[in-house]
Design goal:
The complex is a heterotrimer of chains A (274), B (230) and C (240). Chain A has 274 residues and is an alpha/beta fold. Helix content of chain A is 44%, strand content 24%. The radius of gyration of chain A is 21 Å and the shape is globular. Chain C is of the alpha/beta class. Chain C has eight helices and nine strands. Chain C has a six-stranded mixed sheet with strand order 5-6-7-3-8-9, with helices on both faces. Chain C has a three-stranded antiparallel sheet with strand order 2-1-4, with helices on one face. In chain C, a hairpin with a 2-residue loop joins strand 1 and strand 2 (22-32). The chains are: A alpha/beta (274), B mainly alpha (230), C alpha/beta (240). Chains in contact: A-B, B-C. Chain A binds chain B through residues 4-5, 7-8, 11-12, 14-16, 18-19, 22, 27, 32, 35-36, 38, 40-41, 44, 54, 56-59, 71-73, 175-178, 180-181, 184, 199-203, 230, 232, and chain B through 1, 3, 27-28, 30-31, 34-35, 37-38, 82-85, 88-89, 91-97, 100, 175-178, 180-181, 190, 192-197. Chain C: Residues 10-234 form the ABC transporter domain. Chain C: InterPro entries: AAA+_ATPase, ABC_SmlMolc_Importer, ABC_transporter-like_ATP-bd, ABC_transporter-like_CS, P-loop_NTPase.
Chain lengths: 274, 230, 240
């Protein structure tokens, strides 16, 4: 009994010891698309090497990530839903929002193209056609940045999706990867950010159906969590990360990240667009 | 991480990241089982030996809680440890300690309920003999636990299997942070969402083999001990 | 340390025991004092085992009073019981004895030596490190006897200790019982083996259907049974 007790205490000490050993660390709440695309695996080691600050990324949908931050459980938030982010700032949870990078959304669909939208450049028209043919469509349904963009696009297409949704519209309530897996299994259309799509390996019969519409633009922003709301926030370390991200080194690193020779994200901290 | 590598190549190449993930998974789940055991074994034994009003209800609740949904446990611990929560000042959210806490809570009802069941059977057999020997209350608990030790190994293994295989609590309270709180199951979930199904399945097989290895070791120890102690 | 008060005489004052509607023992009045072994005799179902449990204090009477040396609080410090099917703890033979010694208040430093003596007295020294549950029936019975003796009881209660043993093992156990009796321990033992009763008994308690029919010296009981039931039982007839 005694040896077991000692063993347990030892284990707890070891685990507890991990935390202070990495005292120079911050928690970043971010989105599944940045994690699933592999961007963090590429840029974070560069940052950590330079500053010695350990960055812990908790990847959630944008809505959930913002909730995590509202509870004070992260120091920096790095997401892609500008309207939600600005509301977040207004509520006083975030200090200041900075643009970091963009990529774009693409409409993914089966090569058989039952809705006849392949090659279109008007996303609204493509959605109208999908709705008219009731071709299978997978929605994230998780209040993520991608999900809110999708809802905006339905609105632009003049479709009241709440009223129009039927068995063809699959609301799965999961992350980007899960949505792509589902679409791959069902040969359905799905809206994805380009980064996640490029790094996605289980494509099956899927391909890009629609791209290039300027309404598919996808801007990422970063904010420091307001230390006045949550005094435990590591404001100083968080600011170092933000400054690096929107500074020349971070911007270069983001621009360098490629999959199969394709650049996934385009740095635009200075505010320029394509 | 190169997506074209299979899990087997990762093992063969001694991939440090993979071994760190495996190590963390084992450390978290084993610690959780030890913590749950320290509380659950005596709790189950006491419940087996005592009769008090409300005991039947407690047994039913405990048995029911063997099926606690990991997501619910994870969410409860999350709200508890969140900086806005009652224990927020400890700063434990998104750490291995949080994962141990959540898994221990998940496993505790399993260990306590199965211990209660095992010890109660033995208690029926031992009751008169121990009374006749004038064995005190605390000593009865200790004796029954010790004499059920071979069955209790299986109880602890059931707890370990549950802890090592679940993804719901560790994902929520650990956050799946690369190199810090990323376990086998959260890695499998992540690789699945990246569409790396082959790698995910490979990792799944490694996890199953690990759980088998822990069980085989415990079984071997048990056989050896039974041989010695009957 | 004050010497504990004596457990004797053991007195049943109008004791009944029932389980639900079934009467197991019916208004028993009985006094058992120091002396040669008391044998509790009777057909199966007579209530012998229940009587022994009451003697031990493991059961409480439904009515009436059991007292030990005039006290009714009866902690089991100076009594021990050997059940018909004793339970072996899942540990070695020696550890079973040591367990009994520990709970009889034997100081830690003396336990090893006392364990050896007790195992020697029941002829189990060679098996000391064996798992107790692997012993044969006869060996288990002897181990349980040694564990009971570890309590240095003033009253030793035995429930058909030789019921499942072969003649050689029976003789061995009877010799230990007699030696224990000679050293001053009061033996109260249930049996339905008339030969054994003749060999061991100082006095006999004869039960049928939970009622006490006779309590007499062994010689009187066998030579001049006072009840037709006792006479029939001694003859070997079925007592209904």
């Amino acid at each position: 009994m005694l040896t077991r007790r000692l063993f347990c205490v030892g284990m707890l000490l070891i685990l507890a010891g991990v935390t202070p050993a990495l005292a120079q660390s911050i928690v970043v709440a971010s989105t599944t698309s940045t994690q699933d695309s592999g961007l963090f695996d590429y840029i974070l080691p560069l940052f950590e090497k330079e500053t010695g600050i350990d960055v812990k990324v908790v990847a959630q949908g944008t809505g959930q990530a913002l909730d995590t931050v509202r509870r004070g459980d992260a120091d920096v938030v790095f997401v892609h839903a500008k309207a939600q982010e600005e509301k977040f700032i207004q509520e006083g949870f975030g200090v200041k929002r900075s643009d970091v990078m963009y990529n774009d959304f693409v409409l993914i669909g089966p090569k058989s193209d039952p809705a006849g939208v392949s090659g279109m450049t008007d996303i609204a028209a493509a959605l109208v056609s999908i709705k008219a043919k009731e071709a299978p469509f997978v929605s994230r349904g998780d209040r993520s940045g991608t999900h809110s963009t999708e809802l905006t696009l339905w609105k632009e297409a003049g479709v009241d999706i709440e009223a129009a949704k039927g068995p063809w519209y699959k609301d799965i309530g999961q992350g980007m990867g899960a949505a792509l897996n589902t679409a791959s299994a069902m040969n359905a259309y799905v809206l994805s950010d380009r980064g996640t799509w490029l790094s996605f390996r289980n494509r099956g019969d899927l391909a890009i159906s629609v791209e290039g519409d300027k309404r598919l633009f996808n801007q990422y922003g970063v904010m420091l969590v307001n230390p006045e709301k949550h005094p435990d926030v590591k404001a100083e370390l968080g600011q170092i990360f933000i400054d690096w991200l929107i500074g020349p080194e971070g911007q270069t690193a983001i621009g360098e990240y490629e999959i199969d020779g394709q650049q996934l994200f385009f740095p635009n901290a200075s505010g320029q667009r394509i | 991480m190169s997506e074209t590598l299979t899990a087997w190549q990762l093992i063969a190449s001694g991939d440090a990241t993979l071994f760190a993930i495996v190590g963390l998974s084992l450390a978290v789940s084993l610690t959780a089982v030890v913590v749950a055991g320290i509380v659950g074994l005596p709790l189950g034994a006491i419940l087996a030996l005592t009769r008090f009003p409300g005991r039947a209800a407690m047994v039913v609740v405990l048995n029911g809680f063997m099926g606690l949904p990991p997501v619910v446990v994870g969410l409860s611990v999350y709200l508890l440890l969140s900086r806005s929560g009652p224990l927020g000042e400890l700063g434990l959210l998104f750490t291995p300690t949080a994962m141990v806490t959540a898994q221990a809570l998940l496993v505790l009802p399993i260990i306590a309920a199965l211990t209660r069941h095992t010890v109660e059977d033995l208690w029926l057999e031992y009751r008169e003999e121990l009374s006749a020997m004038g064995v005190g209350w605390a000593s009865r608990v200790a004796t029954l636990l010790w004499d059920s030790r071979f069955s209790l190994v299986t109880v602890l293994l059931a707890g370990f299997g549950r802890a090592a295989a679940e993804v719901g609590t560790v994902m929520i309270v650990g956050g799946n942070i690369d190199g810090f709180t990323r376990t086998m199951t959260t890695t499998i979930a992540l690789e699945t969402s990246r569409g790396n199904l082959a790698l995910a399945i490979g990792l799944g097989i490694i996890l199953i083999l690990l759980i088998l290895l822990v069980n085989a070791t415990a079984w071997g120890v048990r056989v050896w001990a039974v041989e010695r102690a009957g | 340390m004050r010497a504990p008060a004596s457990n004797l005489p053991l007195v049943f004052d109008d004791v009944s025991l029932s389980a639900g509607a079934t009467t197991i023992l019916d208004r028993i009045c009985l006094t058992i004092g120091l002396g040669a072994p008391t044998l509790v005799l009777g057909p199966n179902g007579a209530g012998k085992t229940s009587l022994l449990r009451l003697c031990m204090g493991l059961l409480s009477p439904t009515r009436g009073v059991v007292s030990w040396g005039g006290r009714i609080d009866g902690g089991p410090e100076r009594r021990a019981i050997l059940f018909q099917k004793p339970v072996m703890l899942r540990r070695s033979v020696a550890a079973n004895i040591a367990y009994g010694l520990a709970h009889a208040g034997c100081p830690r430093g003396l336990r090893a030596q006392r364990t050896e003596e007790l195992l020697d007295s029941v002829g189990l020294s060679a098996l000391a490190s064996r798992p107790a549950r692997r012993l044969s029936g006869g060996e288990q019975q002897r181990l349980a006897l040694a564990r009971a003796l570890a309590r240095q009881p003033e009253i030793l209660l035995l429930d058909e200790p030789t019921a499942s043993l072969d003649p050689a093992a029976t003789r061995f156990v009877e010799e230990i019982i007699l030696a224990t009796a000679h050293s001053g321990t009061k033996i109260i033992m249930a049996s339905h083996d008339l030969g054994q009763v003749r060999r061991l008994a100082g006095d006999v308690v004869f039960l049928v259907h939970g009622r006490l029919f006779e309590h007499a010296d062994a010689s009187d009981f066998f030579d001049r049974p006072a009840t037709p039931q006792a006479a029939a039982f001694i003859r070997g007839d079925l007592v209904l």
